[in-house]
Sequence to fold (242 residues):
Amino acid sequence: MGVRTKINLGLLAAFVLGTGMLGSFAWNAIQQNARAELVREAQMITAQASAIRGYTVTEIQPLLAEQSRTRFLPHTIPAFAASSTERDFSKGYPGYIYKEAALNPTNPGHRATPAETAIINDFRKDAALKSIIRTLDTPDGPVISVSRPLKIGNKACLICHSTPDVAPASMVDVYGSENGYGWSVDETIGAQITTVPMRAAEERARELFIRFMTGAAGIYGVALLLVGIILHFAVGTPKATA
Fold:
């Protein structure tokens, strides 16, 4: 095997090995970036819902306090306001889901599923746990789930959730006296769970990866070609011997 052949084979091996290493690094980086973007989206939705909850407590509840004494107004309930707003938001962004899941909710629609119950129990076991991020497979494709604990941090909440005889009669008339009671201050009663679909992000990641690798392979190939040409003239053509 001649020197020129060995050089060409070495360059080819370097091209294949270098492209493979670069592809592996680029794919991992793109995937991690796509996942981080989805987590940030979920965190923003959760933060938006928390802001709605806070606004409801500080602005809406005092404004409708008088009417609430004689008629139950769900609009004054933070969970109702946040869930209703995010449900309308989800209409324009299919697959983006926000839910306030609870172990013992007043509204049956907020009752936790077995999977959500497991998340809530994780928060209850570890008071220092601030967030749980999981990747889940669903019939509609993979999703990222970001959860935050819901705790009773305000004694005012116990007016509705301590015992049925203390709760507003108008609320008991609507939801009954069996669920949503017995809560205590600092207790983790549920979780804010936001899920975002991964399918679109994965497709964008694949497209970006293909574009990047196509460009990188082209640049790398041209560079190796130039190196090969330079080495060709540097080595020269072997002279025939007599």
Helices lie at 3-63, 65-68, 78-92, 114-125, 158-161, 169-175, 199-235. The chain has seven helices and four strands. The first helix runs from residue 3 to 63.
